[in-house]
Amino acid sequence: MAKTWNAESLAMPSVARLSPYQPGRLSESGMIMLASNENPRGPSPAALEAAKQAATTLHRYPDGSASHLRALLAGQLEVAEDQLTFGNGSNDILDLIARVFLGPGRTAVFSEHAFAVYPIATQSAGGTAKVVAAKDYGHDLPAMAAATEDRAVNVVFVANPNNPTGHWLSQEAIENFLDAVPSRVIVVIDEAYFEYAESQADYASAMPLLARYPNLVITRSFSKFHGLAALRLGYAVSHPEVANLMNRVRHPFNVNAIAQAAAVASLQDDAYLKACVAENADQRERLATRFAALGSVTMPSAANFLCVHMGDATAANEWLLSHRIAVRPIANYGLPEWLRITIGTPEENEALLVALERWQ
Ligand code: PMP
User: What ipTM goes with this model?
Assistant: First the structure.
C-alpha cells in the first residue's frame, strides 16, 4: 500500500481527533461480569419468551415505528406517542440528537467524567466538544449553564445518574439548570440508570419537566434495568417537534423486531423489575460498607455500579482478572485511580469482596 496515503488526513478533523469507544470485557463462561453495568439477573422471563416468539419471523422487516411498544410506553409514561423516538440502544438516540442539532461550527457541552459516547456523537457529526470541569467528581451545573451562553453551543448532555461516577441530581437542580440555559440549547438528560435512582429521596426523573421546557430531551435505555443489552434498544422522550426532526435522520428499521417484542413484555413485568431494583439497592449498600471496611473510598452512587478508589487501579484490575472477575478500569474517563464495579448478585459480590480482601 502506498505509504504517502494517509486516511486520517482525509477524515473530518473532528473525527480524526476521536478515540474509539472502549467497551468492557466480553462475557466469558466462568467469568464474573461486573464491567458493563448490566442487570446480573438478566431479563424478565416474560421478555425472554417474547423474544423467542419474535424470532420465528426473522424474514420480515420489523415495525419501523415500533407501534406496540410506542403505545404501551406512551401510556405508562403519560406522554403522547409522537413524543417518543426509539433507537438501536440509547447510543443511537444520542447520535440522532447530534445529527439533528450539531455539526461544524456547533458545540456540545458536557462534564468532565461524563459518558464516553457524548464526544463520539458530537464529533462524528462534525461538532466541537466543550468539557466543563467537574465539581467533587459530579456535574458543576452552574458552570455548565454559563458555558451555554456561548451562541455556538446547541446541545448539553447531562447523565442523571452519571456514568461512571454514579452521582445523581435532584429535580430542583435540573429545574434550576433548565431555567438558566437558553431555550435555543437542547438539554439532554440521559436517564439510562434512572430506575435504580428512584429509591434516593432526593432523586426524581426529569419527565414532569417536559411540559414546561420544549428544549428538554430525556434519553433512556433497555440495556441496564431491563437486562436487554444484547438486543440494543433505547428511546427519547421530547417535544413532538424534536421527535419529528430525529425521525427525519433515523435509519429505517433501526429497532429490531426481537427487541421490540422483548421490551413490550419487560415493561409489563413490574414485579420482576422491582425485585431487581430492590436487590441492587441492598447490594450497593452492602458493597459500599464492605469497601469502607477495607479502607477503599467509594463515590456515592444512585446507579447499579460503584466507583471505588483503588490507588493502583491497574494492579487491582489485573488481580481481579486473575480471579476471573471483570470490572471496569476508567482511566479513559480521567479517573486512573478508580475502578467502576457493577453491582452483581449477592454471590458475585461476595466473590469480589473475598478477592479484594486478599489483595489488600
Ligand atoms: N448513557 C449512559 C450514561 C450509559 O452509561 C450508557 C451505557 N453504557 C448508555 C447511555 C448507552 O446505553 P445503550 O446504548 O446500551 O442503551
Answer: 0.99
